[in-house]
Write a structure and sequence with these properties.
With 773 residues, this protein is α/β, with parallel strands linked by helices. It folds into four domains: 219 residues, Rossmann fold (3-Layer(aba) Sandwich), CATH 3.40.50; 123 residues, 3-Layer(aba) Sandwich (Rossmann fold); 209 residues, Rossmann fold, CATH 3.40.50.450; 124 residues, 3-Layer(aba) Sandwich (Rossmann fold). 41% of the residues lie in helices and 17% in strands. The strands form six sheets. Strands 12, 13, 14, 15, 16, 17, 24 and 25 form an eight-stranded mixed beta sheet that branches. A seven-stranded mixed beta sheet has the order 3-2-1-4-5-10-11. A four-stranded parallel beta sheet has the order 7-8-6-9, with helices on both faces. Strand 10 and strand 11 form a beta hairpin. The longest helix has 25 residues. The protein is globular, with a radius of gyration of 28 Å. It is found in: Cytoplasm. One of its GO terms (cellular component) is membrane. This is ATP-dependent 6-phosphofructokinase. Its cofactor is Mg(2+).
Length: 773
């Protein structure tokens, strides 16, 4: 081992040398579990710990033998994109008994395993550990010395559940992928339903938690949803049929009703998909079909979000084990906004049990409160977007909506939300065609509730969007705002949209027409807007990159020793390349924000050469399009091809505009819907505050804002104040949260042969940012 750096004690404390880590999956399978397993194995090996697979969950731990196997770096190659769990999961009644746990403890001690990464739960096992060892020693199965040596068992949990039913985390591993499966089915069904004017009743999983049903209903614009936490009021049958009938009368050719499998009515009686279908047929005579999605929701490849989430959690779990002390309670790694956090396992378990207790006692409001604010906000947004009876009194305010910049999946969901929430707030909503250029040319029209029906799942921008900035059209735009009496402006777009609002704000001294509330909602695949951690469209682009990389790697199956060089979009922002590399298991990702030179390129070639000597004979390298003006994609391809001669050959792909196309992901549909709704509510508030003598007059910095996601909060920030946070030359924020994940990607990709000084530098970076990883 190479000598550790100056802060030796810091690294000695984090070193895994001499430790053994067991990883197992328990309970139902969920997409992304393999990504977590991969991260635990590679991070464990990285810190020089021994890592063991425990096959078939707790049953394998009880049975021992070949069910507990030490693994290598290569053991988890090519599992990142595989659904389910490659190490198996099984229910084990025997582990629920002390005798079973005694067998499990013996099997672990035989291999020196005193650290467990569990996708499931095992706190009782931890509490009993010392007693179990003493009993094993008394029976002569282990030596007294082993009792002293392995006196403590450390456990860190990660939650894999497609239902998102665990308290303490915003998202569980597998939930986003399950939503992808549901939305794929809904999108397919909508085409056939429109052809025949049909009503479809979809039953989704969720025996005790209605998250999947509620969020998928929000993502697809469903007409009605039934979930366990919100039993419908008495008379719901007639209310639903009236709603469906009204929608059909408005020329809507299809109806979608989503039912969670655990849905109940106010008398605690089940509401089944068949019951809903029979009701619609009997009362309305509509052609109605039922689709029960079942285990298809658990299947398929994990989404980019789940791969990244699980990878972050797996790394964090190993760090938690390295830092654990005898007094440290068992913890669970959770997601809070874009942060990975550690929470006491039993506190989260207890809160989850309290939710079920509240449900059993019919205290539904309490159950929703315990689940967290997201369930409440989702239900509120859905009600506002599907129920026209929530209309406020007319305000006589005119609000214009436009898209600016390159198209991004989710823009249409954001426009739909803005229009419908604006109408429920009592405003007259106007759509501007083709951005600021269209605005100047008078391409503006009033848009109604029905005009945006079915927009949620549409890719691109149905309003039309251009990169043109307003500076050269200021007088014409002011004329159009005056002619149409526009009282507020909502701009949905990327960095150009931000620049556009800055220009309109600066023009207020000359044009009173611009003295109105203005708000921007970030929407760009590049995710490069200052003031927001996420932009609408970036998740869809990331999934496109990940899916494409999967297919490219698959195309080389059976082909020996091949490296793929992939160019991604993003301008100067490396978000897509970096996060795509993490999600697709890339060996390297070259980005503008982290300078690289020929020596690093050469080092990566040498790394791949070493890798090709193992059973892993494929390589993947991503490059952000503007990462370096000299080290172009062609240059890197030619360099790798030349240096790899006799060892591997190369192929290159430029993904191009396919990253901007396609149907939006569930995340982008819901993010666009929620952030847009909040933006319109802010406009309403500002209009009430600034209404004076029959006209709107707002000329303060806080009346021109960007609504961004910061960690887990949506925050309005004056666009002028964000100028200090922006690099205008390269059109990127000066600080970007995802850069702290760079070491994680490198650690999981780098083939481990020895521990050197550069390794310890990476470990320091990871350890000091555990709250961000």
């Amino acid at each position: 081992m190479a000598e550790l750096p100056a802060d030796k004690k810091f690294f000695e404390n984090l070193s895994g040398a001499g430790k053994a880590i067991g990883v197992l999956t328990s309970g139902g399978d969920a997409q992304g579990m393999n990504a977590a397993v991969r991260a635990v194995v590679r991070m464990g090996i990285y810190v020089e710990a021994k890592v063991y697979f425990i096959y078939e969950g707790y049953q394998g731990m009880v049975d021992g033998g070949d069910n507990i196997v030490e693994v290598s770096w290569e053991s988890v190659s090519s599992i990142l994109q595989v659904g389910g769990t490659v190490i198996g999961s099984a229910r084990c009644k025997e582990f629920r008994t002390r005798e079973g746990r005694l067998k499990a403890a013996f099997n672990l001690i035989q291999r020196g395993i005193t650290n467990l990464c569990v996708i499931g739960g095992a706190n009782l096992f931890r509490e009993e550990w010392s007693g179990l060892l003493e009993e094993l020693a008394q029976s002569g199965k282990i030596e007294e010395e082993a009792v002293k040596k392995y006196v403590y068992l450390n456990i860190v949990g990660m939650v894999g559940s497609i239902d998102n039913d665990f308290c303490g985390t915003d998202m569980t591993i597998g939930t986003d992928s399950a939503l992808h499966r549901i939305i794929e089915v809904v999108d397919a069904i909508m085409t056939t339903a429109q052809s025949h004017q049909r009503t479809f009743v979809l039953e989704v999983m969720g025996r005790h938690c209605g998250y999947l049903a509620l969020v998928s209903a929000l993502a697809c614009g469903a007409d009605w949803v039934f979930i366990p936490e919100y039993p419908p009021e008495e008379g719901w049958e007639d209310q639903m049929c009236v709603k469906l009938s009204e929608n059909r009368a408005r020329k809507k050719r299809l109806n979608i009703i989503i039912v969670a499998e655990g849905a109940i009515d106010s008398h605690n009686k089940p509401i089944t998909s068949e019951k809903v279908k029979d009701l619609v047929v009997q009362q309305l005579g509509f052609d109605t079909r039922v689709t029960i999605l079942g285990h298809v929701q658990r299947g398929g490849t994990p989404s980019a979000f789940d791969r990244i989430l699980a990878s972050r959690m797996g790394v964090e779990a190993v760090l938690a084990l390295l830092e654990a002390t005898p007094d440290t309670p068992a913890c669970v790694v959770s997601l809070s906004g874009n942060q990975a956090v550690r929470l006491p396992l039993m506190e989260c378990v207890q809160m989850t049990q309290e939710v079920q207790k509240a449900m059993d006692e019919r205290k539904f409001c309490e159950a929703v409160r315990l689940r967290g604010r997201y369930d409440t906000s989702n239900h509120t947004h859905l009600s506002a977007l599907v129920d026209t009876e929530l209309l406020c009194l007319p305000t006589n305010f005119n609000v214009a909506v436009l898209n600016v910049g390159a198209p991004a999946a989710g823009m249409n969901a954001a426009v739909r939300s803005a229009v419908r929430v604006g109408i429920t707030e009592g405003h007259n909503m106007f759509a501007v065609i083709d951005g600021f250029e269209g605005f100047a040319n008078g391409q503006i029209k009033e848009i109604s509730w029905g005009d945006v029906g079915g927009w949620t799942g549409q890719g691109g921008s149905l309003l039309g969007t251009k990169r043109t900035l307003p500076a050269k059209y200021l007088e014409k735009i002011a004329d159009q705002m005056r002619t149409n009496n526009i009282n507020a402006l909502m701009v949905i777009g990327g960095f150009e949209a931000y620049l556009g609002l800055l220009e309109l704000s600066a023009a207020r001294e000359k044009y009173d027409e611009f003295c109105v509330p203005m708000v921007m909602v970030p929407a760009t695949v590049s995710n490069n807007v200052p003031g927001s951690d996420f932009s609408i469209g970036a998740d869809t682009a990331l999934n496109t990159i990940t899916d494409t990389c999967d297919r490219i790697k698959q195309s080389a199956s059976g082909t020996k020793r091949r490296v793929f060089i992939i160019e991604t979009m993003g301008g100067y922002c490396g978000y897509l390349a970096n996060m795509g590399g993490l999600a697709a298991g890339a060996d390297a990702a070259y980005i503008f924000e982290e300078k690289f030179d020929i020596r690093e390129l050469q080092a990566n070639v040498e790394h791949l050469t070493e890798k090709m000597k193992t059973s892993i004979q494929r390589g993947l390298v991503l490059r952000n399009e503007n990462s370096n003006e000299n080290y172009t994609t062609d240059f890197i391809y030619q360099l790798y091809s030349e240096e790899g001669k006799g060892v591997f050959d190369c192929r290159k792909n430029v993904l191009g505009h396919m990253q901007q196309g396609g149907a939006p992901s569930p995340f982008d549909r819901n993010f666009g819907t929620k952030v847009s709704a909040k933006a319109v509510q802010w406009i309403s508030k500002k209009l009430r505050e600034t209404y004076r003598r029959g006209k709107v007059f707002a000329n303060t910095e806080d009346s021109v804002c960007l609504l961004g996601m910061r960690r887990r909060n949506l925050i309005f920030q004056p666009v002028v104040e964000l100028k200090d946070q922006a690099d205008f030359v390269h059109r990127i924020p000066k600080e970007q949260w995802w850069l702290k994940l760079r070491p994680l990607m490198k650690i999981l990709a780098k083939y481990k042969t020895s521990y050197d000084v550069s390794d310890s530098g990476q470990l320091e970076h990871v350890a000091r940012h555990t709250a961000l990883i």
